[in-house]
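Re: the multi-chain job from yesterday

Posting the exact lines I submitted so nobody has to dig through the queue logs.
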Amino acid sequence: MIQIQTYLDVADNSEARKLMCIRILGTGNQKYAATGNIIIAVVKEAIPNMFLKRSEVVRAVVACTRKGVKRRNRMFLGFDDNAAVIVNQEGNPKGTRIFCPVARELREYNFARIVSLAPEVL
Amino acid sequence: MRLEKCWFCSSTIYPGHGIQFVRNDAKIFRFCRSKCHKNFKMKRNPRKVKWTKAYRKLHGKELNKDATFELERRRNRPERYDRNVVQNTIKALKRIEEIRLKREEKFWENRMKVKKDKRADLEELKQNIHLVKAPVALQEDPSLALPKKMEKVKVKVEMREAGETRAMEE
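And the result, structure tokens for all chains:
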């Protein structure tokens, strides 16, 4: 359940470290983003002297949330922190590596590249 | 479908119950209910929490080392499907369950039996305290008498005094 002002960790090796959600993309006036939703976020913390700087606006895909996903078999799967992967306009990840386990739901949202990069898909 | 064990209390998690938590190192913790989940979030060690199976097995309250547990141990090697093996396994499952329950009952009985023997000893001591200390002494000094509540008593029977009283009686 990511909403506006939520801080998310960045799960890939792009230069940002922390993002703050400023908008949730999708139909209607969505209040919360879950795994697989694209959000617009502003970089709050970044590795110094790199291309991506603080207070830049980026798009990101929510990769895992503390609240977690609810599956068809009525299983709830929650993660350790709220993390996102920075993507470009087409939906391809900006980084080349992903550092946290992700939820299988990303595959259904057509983020196959992220799923393939992830160390563990649960 | 697989019936998992709760990480905290070791009870079976049936489908539709409980929460699974994935840590950043991709280790999955499964909980059967929010009680266990909350205890985990409090960073409690299940081996120190009295109502969990982990505690009970660690402290010898329940059967822990037994051959019947081998059946439920997780095997990571997939077996080739063989109809006969499956049928034999199903028969064995029921039988092993029976055996395990009987052994657990026996274990419990043995555990309770020890306490019963102690109770009998205390009872005997209370009734025959006059053999150890003279009744006159008990009347004069009531602090020597055993208190009403047996369980909290630790009676130090001094062997020297017993020898003396016996010599006097003789």
